[in-house]
Amino acid sequence: MERILRIVETVFVYRLTHGEKLAWHGRYHAHNDNEFEIHFFLCGTGSFLINTAKISIEDNALFLVGPHDFHSIVPEQVTSPLTYYAVLFELDEQLDNEIYLLLTNFIKQRSIKHYAADTNRFLFDELLRLSSPKQIGLKKSAEYLLYSLLFRWYSGDSPSVSASASVSAHKNTNTIIRNAMDYFKANMHKSITITQVAYMLGLSAEHFIRVFREEMHMTPYQYFMRLRTEAAAAELITTDLPVSEIAERYAFENQFHFSKVFKKCTGFTPTAYRRCYMQK
Fold first, then answer.
1. Helix/strand/coil for 29
2. Which residue has the higher pLDDT, 278 or 8?
3. Phi/psi at 119 (nearest 5 deg)?
4. Cβ(118)–Cβ(223) below 8 Å
5. 198: which of 69, 129, 205, 234 fits an S-S bond (Cβ 3.0–4.6 Å)?
6. For residue 238, is it within any domain?
7. Quick check: 8 pLDDT over 70?
8. Using CA atoms, how far apart are residues 49 and 76, in angstroms rounded to an integer?
């Protein structure tokens, strides 16, 4: 049976700014043979150093580091707090040859920073939960999940020249998706309809839903609910606001509706999420 990668460590770092925490996570280091690391930055600004290249950190960016690549978060260039996930995993060059070659070729092309349309914190929350040392029986499912995500994120990112028409259409789709996402982000505190968003984009609601679902693997409504849930999740672990007030702030119908959507997205009720992720 084909071997699946092994997750070595999964961490969540919240609002990294200064002090010993930054000194540790910002250290300049490299990993061992066959070890790769993914960083997914939720928010913050700074610089990521890999070997001799210094790359700006931006929201929702994935950084892929290969074996023996020296890398760090540059401490003095963290200008706003960084929140991110990091997953360190090991591949066998022989038994995991297909995914190993996929990732090493991606790195050889200097494509260290990458954006994947269907990447969000909930995927990394799931990896973090399943790969916990206390969840030994579930760790294999985390490894299968990461294995699948790596193929999704890093396959087919270099279209051929002969596919220029397809590339052009893809760019147009990307523009639609990006404009929709920007509109959703700007209106997280409002109750808006998908018809309104489609009108803003100059599309019919049916066409907008189809294009969005094909690209994002979820409907616009599902994405908007996840976006609001993500923002609400941050408030749950950074403030003492009552759950009812957070629900109202992000225009959920009521606290019950908020709790139902939140649990569907994260697997936790808002109260349980706050208890699990609150950092003293």
1. strand
2. 8
3. -90, 135
4. no
5. 205
6. yes
7. yes
8. 12
State both tokens at 202. 């100059």
Whether 119 and 104 have beta carbons less than 8 Å apart is answered as: no
Pairing mode of beta strands 53-57, 35-50: antiparallel
From CA 213, how far away is CA 221, in angstroms rounded?
10
- Residue 153 is which amino acid? W
Query: Best-predicted range by mean pLDDT among 17-21, 40-44, 133-137?
Result: 40-44
Domain range for 113 is: 6-154
Residue 23 phi/psi, 5° resolution?
Answer: -60, -35
Q: How many residues does the chain have?
A: 280
Place of tokens 């030994």: 136
Strands 53-57 and 71-73: unpaired
pLDDT tens digits along 206-242: 999 999 888 766 789 988 988 888 888 888 888 899 9
* Helix (H), strand (E) counts: the chain: 11, 7
Of 130, 154, 178, the one marking the end of a domain is 154
Scanning the structure block, which residue is given the tokens 């699990």? Answer: 276
The domain tally of the chain equals 2
Nearest to 131 by CA among 120, 146, 118: 146
Torsion of Cα atoms, 17 then 124 then 280 then 8, to 10°: -90
